[in-house]
Fold this sequence. Notes:
Layout: H1 2-15, H2 49-64, H3 73-93, E1 120-122, E2 129-131, H4 135-146, H5 151-162, H6 166-185, E3 194-196, H7 200-206, H8 212-219, E4 221-227, E5 234-240, H9 248-260, E6 267-268, E7 273-275, H10 295-306, H11 308-312, H12 318-329, E8 334-340, E9 346-352, H13 357-365, E10 375-378, E11 400-407, H14 409-417, H15 429-432
Parallel strand pairs: 8-11
Antiparallel strand pairs: 1-2, 1-6, 3-5, 4-5, 7-9, 8-9, 10-11
Amino acid sequence: MRKFFQDIKADIKFKTAGPGQKLAEPPRERAPKEKPKAATPKSRQGPTDEAQMAAAAALARLEQKPKPWLPSSQDAIKSQVKKELLAEAAASERGLSTDHKSPVSGVEEETAGLSVSGVYFICPLTGATVKKDQKEAHIKEAILLHSSRDPVAASIMEIHTFNRDREKVKLGVETIAKYLDNIHLHPEEEKYRKIKLQNKVFQERINCLEGTHEFFQAIGFEKKMLPVPGQETTEGYYVLKEEVLTKLEDLKDYKEQLLSSEPVKAQLDRQLRVFKPSPQAAQFELPHDFYNLTAEELKREQRLRTEAVEKASMLRTKAMREREEQREMRKYNYTLLRVRFPDGYILQGTFYAREPVSVLYRFVREALKDDWMPFELLSPGGLKLTEENLAFNECGLVPSALLTFAWDAAVLADIKASGEEQKGSPLKLELLSAVQILS
């Protein structure tokens, strides 16, 4: 490799050595290269008087024009804030909020073609209607806001609502109740008015629960560092304030509230709708909210359904069929049900998949003009729904179904025999005034 590079260098040196000569000839001197003659610069003439006058006039015109204003970063921020304030003002005039859009208008584009825009809940504290994925954050915010008005009640709601493990909540609440019982029964003994924060029972049963510290502070405890007997160190304690000892009955009431309270749960919004007669009544397009599955799991389910035809031709035992039915029932959290009346009008509502059929009967009865008259509901197959204690998923009414409304035959015969007739729709007038077209 070294010889290869040496040969290349020798070849380059040979080519740049100039013209050759005979060995017997004396060496020739190289003619010096002539340097190129520098070009003599032409003498530049000054501007004429007319050109100078024209330039001065143009410069004067430029100085008279206002210079463009370049906004600073502070000005840009002010301008952006002004735009946002104007946008908020315009939105408030339309009865909307830029941060909290109405559930329907905010998802119109995403829910086009769906039978219902999603699953919604009503907060029992604020009365607001929120989407399923927003309900927990909304309830938490409502409870925290309530703490400024009633800190004891708010902290009790925190304990029962923010902690999902009901067994841990039960154990923690019972332990707190024992602390309060000891104070109420032995108010003169100082040891019962102090709770050591590093105590094993306190750490395992109470400290792990959200809202417990807020509860202790709300009912009159305060945190203090107290000296350890025989040592120079201190430890943290909850110590009951002296003035609370004059209100021991209040402590008893707080204990009863703590023991009897339940988690704050949002109520499922039925999203009651009434539609005009439509041939599309049995067609449903549901959002993902209705399924107890992720998007990937839904795709997998669609693939499995394509294989169901092959599986249907196989012989299966009763146990195999029951397992598959149980798996099908667990897929759905909610169901969208429609009831078609004799005049063709359709009543629609959203329900939990595990709610009993009796809930649907009550839902329909509350929509009737004559709610005292007995009626029947027929399943899509024409069978009468008589087992009102069965859940919707046990009746095959998930994730959606179209049922048929029918008056009780005996009562209807009595009405006809008396010469009276059912006139108009059986639904309430206020529902018919908001009737929609099923698309």
